[in-house]
Amino acid sequence: MPVPSDLFLDPWPSLSYPDFADAHYFLRMGLQAIGKLKLKEPFQPQWSGVPLWLSARGLTTGPIHYAGGAYEVSVDLISHETVCVTSWGTLGRLKLESMSVAEFVERLLDLLKKAGVDVSINLKPQEMPNPIAFDQDKARRSYEPQMANNWWRILLSTQHVMRIFKGSFLGKTQRIGLMWGTLDIRDALYNGKPASPGAKADYIRRNAMNAELIEMGWWAGSAAYPKPAFYSFAHPQPAGIEDAKISPPGSRWESSMGEFILDYDDLRKSKDPDGDLLSFFRSAFKAGAECAGWDPNLMGTGQPD
Known about the structure:
With about 300 residues, the chain is α+β, with helices and mostly antiparallel strands. It has two domains: about 15-140; about 145-300. The protein is about 30% helix and about 25% strand. The strands form three sheets. Strands 9, 10, 11, 12, 13, 14 and 15 form a seven-stranded antiparallel sheet that branches. Strands 1, 2, 3, 4, 5 and 6 form a six-stranded antiparallel sheet that branches. Helix 1 (about 15-35) packs parallel to helix 2 (about 100-115) and helix 3 (about 145-165) packs across helix 6.
């Protein structure tokens, strides 16, 4: 049965960071609490096992091993609820609505316990300036269903274009996912060579930036850069990359960030958003790879015959 055309939504919906900021904070803290559940799993290089995966309704941890079985926590951004399912048949739901971070985390852990999962997490947020422990973060935060849904649909559309791009890459990659510490969807490509994360690198960075890579992604914005944008950078940063020419028009090198940037609102104005985003990923990768001296054969010819 064909899907009625009026059920299809804009794949690149509007999203204003200033309007979304409070709900974005709530989502970031809530998804960090959920993401920390995955830290019980065996460590994978460059944290490749810890992202949240996109689903047809939101985000999910995927199965997490527990007591000889597994459980999974999903965030449904259509029905706006957090759902826990287990391999022993239990199911629980938690409505997503405006509340404090402390209340959400308390409800989340109670949901898990009622499902038969008795776990604890580190209550300190990661990769945040001036972090407030989850159980101490008692200010009421807004949850905006439509903006949360728009945010997730942008993630879906971005992942689709990322998959087209990485289909030509012949080196080591990771599964595309949402990095819950920074709340960005990212795709990381590696050339197989080790790298120094830097003398002052913290524990997260030491285990994330210990290999040469080119990364690309999208985030919804921050206080320092209050608008959603796509990005790409190379680690270690190669000399001359800031002078590279990339496309589409409007994309640029942002020296304060050490990254190529394409503002999301500029992409929304395009007659071919998917094509322009693919051009951004391809040209930014080419700039990073050429400046860093990567083997050009790592980028293959595209789709198989």
